[in-house]
Inverse folding.
């Protein structure tokens, strides 16, 4: 498996892949010509976003000498509303963009981390914090009522899900599936896609007709529904999260058009018995 390394210079040469279409549309990402400042990242927020402690969300430059651990990071955001942002960091740029696309969900995830931290004397992550972290970094949201496709994904019948049912992906028809990136680590790794890159999907049981709406409306509705699902306990542990080979998602990666792409069973692995 290729070891991941992100670009160390500013470029958007990767942004013509379909997995970046929404960022390009909502944030004009492929028009940026240099690393964005914290003020530029603030401007992407759709309104004056507050966290669930009533603090206004702002991206603030993180000192090179400061290295937050997970507990310090979530606590600092909850108590101040300030999101530490490293200079020239793809990970943090994509983290800020995800805040702009899913402000309610990000605020809820931060609050759940904070409450879990305060309820425990341990620095170790609980099952809930493990699930929240996994989804925050690597999550994908599928909006669909197509149980046949979901069953194929759960059983790792990748050719059925991605090849035989290709026309259902990103289709606004009643049996379509709308796929949205959530994890900012996914976005970072997709700047240099590699075989092995896998996310974790969570489903919203709703019609893919959402794809027919303007992008900003899609994300507003998705944010509301995703936050409600997580609030109801969907990420109390990782039992509702299933693997998704990201490069296999139709329309997201040009390389999956090759006839033999899905034959690689080291990537498209069968389900363990």
């Amino acid at each position: 498996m290729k070891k991941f390394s992100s670009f160390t210079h500013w470029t958007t040469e990767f942004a013509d892949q379909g997995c970046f279409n929404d960022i390009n549309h909502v944030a004009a990402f492929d028009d940026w010509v240099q690393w964005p400042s914290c003020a530029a990242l603030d401007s992407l927020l759709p309104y004056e976003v507050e966290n669930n402690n009533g603090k206004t969300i702002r991206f603030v430059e993180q000192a090179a000498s400061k290295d937050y651990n997970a507990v310090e990071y979530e606590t600092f955001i909850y108590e101040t509303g300030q999101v530490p942002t490293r200079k020239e960091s793809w990970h943090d740029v994509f983290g800020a963009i995800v805040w702009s696309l899913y402000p309610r969900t990000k605020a809820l995830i931060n609050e759940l981390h904070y409450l879990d931290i305060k309820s425990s004397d341990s620095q170790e992550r609980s099952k809930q914090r493990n699930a929240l972290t996994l989804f925050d970094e690597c999550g994908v949201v599928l909006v669909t009522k197509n149980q046949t496709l979901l069953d194929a994904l759960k059983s790792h019948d990748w050719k059925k899900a991605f090849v035989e049912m290709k026309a259902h992906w990103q289709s606004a028809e009643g049996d379509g599936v709308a796929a949205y990136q959530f994890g900012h680590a996914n976005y970072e790794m997709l700047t240099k896609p590699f075989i092995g890159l896998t996310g974790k999907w969570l489903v919203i049981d709703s019609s893919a007709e959402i794809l027919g709406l303007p992008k900003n409306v899609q994300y507003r509705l998705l944010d509301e529904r995703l936050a409600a699902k997580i609030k109801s306990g969907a990420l109390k542990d990782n039992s509702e999260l299933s693997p998704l080979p990201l490069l296999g998602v139709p329309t997201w990666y040009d390389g999956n058009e090759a006839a033999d792409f899905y034959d690689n069973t080291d990537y498209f692995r069968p389900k363990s018995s």
The beta strands are 58-61, 82-85, 139-144, 177-181, 198-204, 242-245. The mean pLDDT is 94. Residues 137-263 form one domain. The CA atoms of residues 18 and 170 lie 11 Å apart.
